[in-house]
Fold this protein.
Amino acid sequence: MRIVACTDGDRALDRWRASAPDVVVLDLSLPGRDGLEVLAQARAEGLDTPVLILTARGTVGDRVLGLNTGADDYLPKPFDLDELEARIRALVRRRRGTELPTPGYCGLQVDPDSLAVYHQGRPLDLTLREASLLQALLASPGRAVAKARLTEIVFRDDAEVQPDAIEVVAYRLRKKLAATDVRLVTLRGLGYLVDRAAADAADIPGETP
């Protein structure tokens, strides 16, 4: 894959028009015309290249604005280079018409290569650990997975992980799933599960978070 870098928004837009790239990795903080302006103009001209936004603007409002302007994915700074590469590969694969090879559940899909998560075809902003936890639970929706097993999956490269670390990840994931039809449920003594039927259920008392 050949990489072309542009140092300002106007040059980026000109290059985009001329070269029909496979993927555009777009920084929002560009000199001159900023990244959102570049993206809005490109979409107005019918340029449909997949776009991955990179930015230090990390609020939910900023992410929503970028996605509504026409971005396909969003990666806040600082980021891991392996994750960036994986997300680019996922966008290229989608561009070439390859469907995500993971089964969907209630509108949710997890790309197994990048761990990018999509809800109703739109990116859902999860960390790698949150996405890894969700992927493990989506393998058997409605069935509990033990905390010990989930800890092995989510923290496989961390030999000094604290016993309650998986609870923190689960707590954050639960909040981010609130806008979907999927709920993460804590089952005391058993672990966690995801299930559409749990939408109105409360966690069993005594388990935190």
Q: What stands out?
A: Residues 81-95 form the longest helix (15 residues). Helices lie at 9-19, 35-44, 60-69, 81-95, 128-138, 147-154, 165-176.
